[in-house]
């Protein structure tokens, strides 16, 4: 049995050879102080965020794109593999996608965790490469392709040609930063305290990076937000507008655009010419922010498209390697 794992900061996806994506759950582990093992993993553990009593902690093992908690990461991989592929898993090979910023020590830790979860052989693939393959870019051709993967904790920007990453940037700005930008805005402008999950709900409901063309009704929308008043500590509801949320998101969105520009400036002129001609592809959950593609296109003068099912691109890229181990092995790095 061969398995591909997209170990994301927000979501972990498993791809089983011949079956496709078999698991998609939040990368969260709930643990009880002093106890061994996890109380809950994945979707069940995410439900506990912000609602845990003092003795229980909800951990994101990959916060900010680096492994912040090895034990929890290992527990999570083991749990997901067992859940998605029950029974015996003889001679399992795993392709695990890792953020390009991870250190050699962290790479080894991930390999170790995958081995403890039952892998006989573990291959790592860099996230932008997996995202590009999953989005259907011609990564092996002598042609520059640019992929921008906007995940929960990080955004990875890369130009790929001839099966290799030519230049890349990894920044610690992703969906979570967009959420905290909303939290900060609501606190400062409305004196209202809200939790991380509420901020994410606001972003998904009425967030945007730029006016959405042909959607005048979207511009007029508001979203009722419940939280706690900063001063008196009482529950309070505020109606947020689309324009307010867009303003709140401006700074992290600009940071992503700056990274795209810097990566283009870093790359050899032939390759940036290819990117100009063929465009930039957005993957990851952040690509779903309405009009982010238009905003990046307007800032760079380069056409931008969002991959089909951007939340699945990386897992599908790992999956392609799993389906076709022998011919794609050179895109993987053995550890
Ligand atoms: P990772 O690879 O780091 O696990 P994902 O690619 O799974 O991250 O993306 C998760 C991020 O995408 C989260 O921050 C989530 O809030 C964000 N996201 C998901 N859907 C949307 C949406 N419709 N609009 C904006 N952001 C979204
Ligand atoms: Mg990802």
TrEMBL record:
Keywords: ATP-binding, Cell shape, Cytoplasm, Nucleotide-binding
An example Gene Ontology CC term for this record: cytoplasm
Gene Ontology BP term (one): cell morphogenesis
Gene3D superfamilies: 3.30.420.40
Cross-referenced PANTHER family: CELL SHAPE-DETERMINING PROTEIN MREB
Known function: Forms membrane-associated dynamic filaments that are essential for cell shape determination. Acts by regulating cell wall synthesis and cell elongation, and thus cell shape. A feedback loop between cell geometry and MreB localization may maintain elongated cell shape by targeting cell wall growth to regions of negative cell wall curvature.
Protein name: Cell shape-determining protein MreB
Source organism of the structure: Streptomyces boluensis
Gene: mreB
């Amino acid at each position: 049995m061969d398995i591909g794992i997209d170990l994301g900061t927000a979501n972990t996806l498993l791809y089983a050879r011949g079956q496709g994506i078999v698991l998609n759950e939040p990368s969260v582990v709930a643990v009880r102080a002093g106890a061994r093992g996890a109380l809950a993993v994945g979707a069940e553990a995410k439900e506990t965020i912000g609602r845990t009593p003092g003795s229980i902690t909800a951990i994101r093992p990959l916060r900010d794109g680096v492994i912040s908690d090895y034990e929890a990461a290992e527990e999570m991989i083991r749990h997901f593999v067992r859940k998605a592929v029950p029974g015996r898993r003889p001679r399992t090979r795993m392709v695990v996608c890792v953020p390009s910023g991870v250190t050699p020590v962290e790479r080894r830790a991930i390999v170790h965790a995958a081995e403890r979860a039952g892998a006989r052989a573990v291959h790592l693939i860099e996230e932008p490469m997996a995202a590009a393959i999953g989005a259907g870019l011609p990564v092996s051709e002598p042609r520059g392709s640019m992929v921008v993967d906007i995940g929960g904790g990080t955004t990875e920007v890369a130009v790929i040609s001839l099966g290799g990453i030519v230049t890349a940037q990894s920044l610690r700005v992703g969906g979570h930063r967009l959420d905290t930008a909303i939290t900060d805005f609501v606190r400062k402008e409305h004196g209202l305290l809200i939790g991380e999950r509420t901020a994410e709900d606001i972003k998904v409901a009425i967030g945007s990076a730029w006016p959405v063309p042909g959607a005048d009704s979207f511009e007029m929308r508001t979203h009722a937000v419940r939280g706690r008043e900063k001063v008196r500590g009482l529950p309070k509801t505020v109606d947020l507008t689309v324009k307010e949320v867009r303003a709140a998101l401006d700074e992290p969105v600009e940071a992503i655009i700056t990274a795209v520009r810097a990566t283009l400036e870093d790359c050899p002129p032939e390759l940036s010419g290819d990117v100009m001609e063929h465009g930039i592809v957005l993957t990851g959950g952040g690509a779903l922010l309405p009009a982010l593609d238009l905003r990046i296109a307007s800032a760079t003068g380069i056409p931008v498209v969002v991959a089909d099912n951007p939340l699945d691109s990386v897992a599908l890229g790992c999956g392609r390697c799993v389906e076709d181990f022998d011919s794609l092995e050179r895109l993987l790095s053995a550890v």
